[in-house]
Amino acid sequence: MFVVNDMPDRIDDRIVAELQDVCVSTLGHMRDHGFALGLVPNKRPVKFVGTAVTVRIPHLDSTAVHLAVDMLRPGDVLVVDQSGDVQRSCFGGLVSFTAKSRGAAGAVLDGSINDYDETLAYDFPVFSRGFSPLTTRIGGLEGAINVPVTVGGATVHPGDVVFADSDGVAFLKPADAVGLGARLREKEDAEGPARESITVGGSIAEFSGAAKYRP
Ligand SMILES: O=C([O-])CC(=O)C(=O)O
Ligand SMILES: [Mg+2]
Fold first, then answer.
1. pLDDT single digits (tens) 82-128
2. CB 98 less than 6 A from any atom of ligand 1
3. Nearest residue to 161 (alpha-carbon basis) of 44, 38, 75, 86
4. How far is the CA of 163 from the centre of ligand 2 (A)?
5. Which of 169, 175, 35 minimizes the C-alpha distance to 105?
6. Which spans are transmembrane here (predicted)?
7. Which of 40, 76, 101, 115 could disulfide-pair with 92, CB 3.0 to 4.6 Å?
8. How close is the Cα of 149 to the center of ligand 2, in Å?
């Protein structure tokens, strides 16, 4: 059976702008959940912030991916759960070309990619488990679009904020992302004075608070 739910509301442009120039790992200093672990980008440096459009497919059948890619809007990020089969690729040159043509910001797959060089030629950023010549097929078995999915151990709902850079991918509820960019910026800016101090012999352990645990 195929489920095709409505496309989610697009995240606010202000969230995109605020998160565009801060690091995902700065959030990793503050939060322990909602990160897609074990995924790597097809290129670095990489940076994108967008609206999650989710797809769940069974191991072999990427029919729902092809249906979903056609539906992508500017700024969307395709998020694909392959039901645990991370070795097959549902995402190659033609799928990336279509996503790029629709204006999508990127893709995050709990599976592999193929046509690697082609994805690079389109300059389309994709996080995945790696590369594979073994692909999915258009089998018409089943699949679901815009349902909750699991990717890299994180639960993702359609409409979540996808916040990605060279360190990896985080997923956020839009309400949790409001004002987050400013908090991350503040934390990153605090490292400026620390660097100046370290240059003249200052201590990272004093800056971080580790020094108080020195025996
Ligand atoms: O069609 C697929 O599922 C994967 C692929 O090779 C492409 O996107 O070009
Ligand atoms: Mg291909």
1. 999 999 999 999 999 999 999 999 999 999 999 999 999 999 999 99
2. no
3. 75
4. 27
5. 169
6. none
7. 115
8. 25
Tokens (6 digits) for 80: 């694909």
Question: Which ipTM was obtained for this model?
Answer: 0.96
Give the confidence band of 135 by pLDDT, cuts at 50, 70, 90.
very high
CB 156 within 8 A of CB 149: yes
Cis before 174? omega within 30: no
Q: Between 3.90.1150.10, 3.90.930.60, 3.50.30.40, 3.30.1330.60, what CATH number should domain 2-176 receive?
A: 3.50.30.40
Which residue shows structure tokens 């092809």?
66
Q: What is the 3-state secondary structure (H, E, C) of 17-38?
A: HHHHCCCHHHHHCCCCCCEECC
